[in-house]
Automatic annotation (TrEMBL):
Gene3D superfamilies named among the record's database cross-references: Protein HRI1, N-terminal domain
Entry protein name: Uncharacterized protein
Pfam family, one: HRI1
Domain of life, source organism: Eukaryota
Protein source organism: Pyronema omphalodes (strain CBS 100304)
Keyword Signal on entry: yes
Signal peptide range: 1-30
Length: 266
């Protein structure tokens, strides 16, 4: 297993070198129903459509959302649609990728995560098929797998990342989606937020902790009487902040410091 992972990582580094020239040419993916997206460098909002262990049938009993920022930080939350516990899996860290391959490096994981190399296949309708080898948690055997992801456009084109200073926590916002996870000991808190016509609202939460997702979800109020100086508060936040959230800012939530390590507008 160790030799396999070393070979996989070496192979990925080789792919990075080979693809650097192609990335400079801005390889893009042409689709029929989606905007042209450079998946190797562009921030992404990905919803998983299905997962399968080869040769089993494809299925998707979860609500799985993966957010990737311009600086390649990612946060993936997998919630159950019907059963308990609500949170099935949460991972965060760095996602290195080319137009055809990717590897996730985990800093937070609620399970034993593998930093595996996987292949990315671009489908004609704009979806991305991910394939590779992983350990099946049911029987502990390494198997081939496939997962199909659908890209959503980021609107607004804004990304924010906040990390817990003591480690074990991350909040990632890309466009109109925001997710957060905090793991302290055996206690895990995870949240998912979405912005719709009614503003920001939390659509899923697991655990009893408090995350600064509502802060990451603040948007500039361009309709305000102060020339867009103020920010519209997220639903339930209860106050309005008179400055934008910027890289380097520190937010304190229940005595815990969260630092903004990435703020990107494109």
């Amino acid at each position: 297993m160790l030799n396999y992972k070393i070979r996989n990582f070496t192979r990925f580094l080789f792919i990075i070198v080979l693809s650097s020239t192609l990335q400079q040419l801005h390889l893009t993916m042409a689709t029929t129903n989606h905007p042209r997206v450079n998946t190797a460098t562009h921030p992404l909002i990905l919803t998983r459509l299905y997962h399968r262990w080869i040769p089993r049938l494809a299925k998707e009993p979860t609500s799985t959302l993966l957010l990737i920022t311009p600086l390649n930080r990612f946060l993936e939350l997998r919630f159950s649609r019907t059963s308990t516990p609500l949170l099935l899996h949460a991972t965060a860290g760095t996602y290195l990728r080319t137009a055809t391959h990717g590897i996730r490096g985990y800093t937070i994981s609620t399970a034993d995560a593998e930093n595996q190399v996987h292949t990315l296949h671009h489908q004609l309708n704009g979806d991305i098929m991910e394939s590779g080898m992983l350990t099946d948690p049911v029987d502990g055997v390494e198997k081939g797998y496939e997962a199909v992801w659908r890209i959503s456009e980021a609107n607004p084109r804004l990304a924010v990342v906040m990390v817990l200073r003591q480690g074990g926590g991350m909040v990632v916002r890309v466009g109109a989606w925001c997710q957060g996870v905090m793991k302290i000991g055996n206690e895990v808190t995870a949240e998912r937020w979405i912005r719709d016509r009614g503003g920001w609202r939390r659509v899923a939460k697991s655990g009893g902790g408090r995350l600064p997702c509502s802060i990451a979800c603040l948007d500039r109020d361009e309709e305000g009487g102060e020339g867009g100086k103020y920010l519209r508060s997220a639903r339930g936040l209860g106050f309005v902040v008179a400055k934008t959230l910027e890289q380097g800012d520190v937010v304190v939530v229940e005595g815990m410091e969260w630092r903004v390590v990435e703020k990107f507008v494109w």
